[in-house]
Amino acid sequence: MRPGRNPEPLGKTPLLDLTYEQLNGLLASWGEPAYRADQIWGWLYRSLAADFEEMTNLPRELRERLAEATLLRTMEPLGERVSADGFTRKVLFALRDDQTIESVLMHYEQRHTTCISTQVGCPFGCVFCATGQSGFVRNLTPGEIVEQVLYFARQLKDQGRRTNRPITNVVFMGMGEPLANYEATWQAVETLTHHEGFNLGARRITISTVGLVTGIRRLAEEGTQIGLAISLHAATDELRDELVPINRRYPLTHLMAACRHYVERTRRRISFEYALIHGINDSPEQARQLARLLDGLLCHVNLIPLNPVPESLYQPSPQGRILAFQAELNRWKVSNTLRVERGADIQAGCGQLRCQRMPTG
Ligand code: SAH
Ligand code: SF4
Questions:
Q1: Would you say 128 and 277 are in contact if contact means Cβ atoms under 8 Å apart?
Q2: Which ligand number lies closest to the CA of residue 275?
Q3: How much is the pTM?
Q4: Residue 228: what pLDDT?
């Protein structure tokens, strides 16, 4: 990484980038007893420590050595915005190389869900997505992915929410394509679900993908219960090629075969995301095509009224067309939900995140 604005000298090991075994190995090389890794992971992921000085059951020399050799935090919040209804909070973070990412926290019923990024920008260029329009810069590290969750967990804890489980759900639906940064994404999932780590149930995590077939097949072999969401948006190759250009490489027959395989391996229902775009993919006939494509698959469709993206030609479908589309899906008994989009007023809705400076407040 290039030296950035972060004053910490580079060369220090970001602690959150280490797996439990790697941390164990580091501590063993320092001559520390085996239980230290448990203690440190407890401070990092359960007590949500923001500073080594908080780790009061570690000897002072170890705390000092950790502070010299490792980094506990690698990103700084540059600004936060809260939606008018107060349910959605978006944070812009500066990374150590001065790149920026955005992450979102949503409160909904009893849930506190973080929507996290896996890349700076995104290489796939879906035509209606603000992240895709800003291009691709780099992958995030495992620690940078997990740190977004810890940031919000600490914030909730400081606000006096239930301390041991402030975050109830994590969705990989922020900037970037998780399955194009597979190793880091998977390590982050393992840390978040590790019983000595953040200890979140796998069923409380959802990975969303644009449809990278090799990644979906790889995920199917992990033997996990995490949720999978596919950003579909069109039920024919002709239209999907246009809206989601990676479809030219992984056309619908291959994508659907991978989805069927995923359901067979995991027995978990897949979600399909379908952003309704006025006059493009929102006719009753297109709803019938979608029903045919998904026929017989254990799945659920999330209908999302398109979130407006500046300078985009694409507009959200009007309510009448949305309801007619949904009625057609219902007629064909396709399980679906019409999502109430939240946070669009602060550009925190699906597909609205981008790498740019933003005003605070
Ligand atoms: N790259 C992954 C993860 C990002 S998730 C993926 O594409 O699945 C972001 C979700 O918001 C995806 O389902 C994406 O297709 C959707 N999206 C993108 N732009 C949108 C917009 N303008 N309005 C509504 N949804 C959008
Ligand atoms: Fe990338 Fe997903 Fe946006 Fe497509 S929808 S450009 S894959 S972040």
A1: yes
A2: 1
A3: 0.94
A4: 98
Pocket of ligand 1 (CB under 6 A): 122, 126, 128-129, 173, 177, 208-210, 231, 273, 275, 304, 306-307, 309, 350-351
Contact status, residue 322 vs residue 305, Cβ threshold 8 Å = yes
Look at phi and psi of residue 77 and say left if phi exceeds 0, alpha if psi is from -120 to 50, else beta: beta
Residue limits of CATH 1.10.150.530 in the chain: 13-71
Q: Which ligand is nearest to the CA of 315?
A: 1
In the chain, where does the domain assigned CATH 3.20.20.70 lie?
Answer: 75-357
Residue 42 alpha carbon to ligand 2 centre in Å: 34
Please say if the pLDDT value at position 164 is more than 70.
no
15 contacts 43 by C-beta, under 8 angstroms: no
Taking alpha carbons only, the member of 119, 104, 111, 128 closest to residue 165 is 111
Q: Whose CA is nearest to atom 8 of ligand 2?
A: 176
Give me 20's structure tokens: 């439990």
Pick the CATH number of 75-357 from 3.40.50.300, 3.90.1010.10, 3.20.20.70, 3.40.50.720: 3.20.20.70
CATH: 3.40.50.300, 1.10.150.530, 2.30.110.10, 3.40.50.720. Which one for 13-71?
Answer: 1.10.150.530
Cα separation, 317 vs 253, whole angstroms:
27
Which numbered atom of ligand 1 lies nearest the CA of 171? 5
With a 6 Å cutoff on the Cβ, whether 177 touches ligand 2 is: yes
First to last CA, the chain: 30
State the distance from the centre of ligand 2 to the C-alpha of 29, rounded, in angstroms. Answer: 42
Q: For 45-87, what is each residue's pLDDT tens digit?
A: 999 999 999 999 999 999 999 999 999 999 999 999 999 988 9
Q: For a substitution probing ligand 2, which of 118, 209, 231 has the most ligand atoms within 8 Å of its CB?
A: 231
Is residue 284 a contact partner of residue 328, using CB atoms and an 8 Å limit? yes
Give the number of other CB atoms < 10 A from CB of residue 195: 8
